[in-house]
Amino acid sequence: MEIGKEKYFCTKPVLRAVVDFYTNLIVLEGNIVTSAVNEVELIIDHIRLGEILKIPTNGLAEYVWLDDENCLLTSKFSQGRASTRARKVLKGEMAPFHKLLFEIVHKGILPKRHRGYKACLRDIGIAHALENIEPIDWPSLMIKDMARIVDPQPSSYQLAYGNLFSIVFKEFFVPLGEGECGLLVEPYQTPIVSPRASRPVASLLRDLKTARDQIGALQAENASLRTDLTMSQGEVAKLQEQLVNKQIDNNCLMDRVFSFLLPFRFLLSLVLNTPAH
Question: What pLDDT, in 10s, does the model give residues 188-201?
Answer without folding.
Answer: 333 333 334 445 55
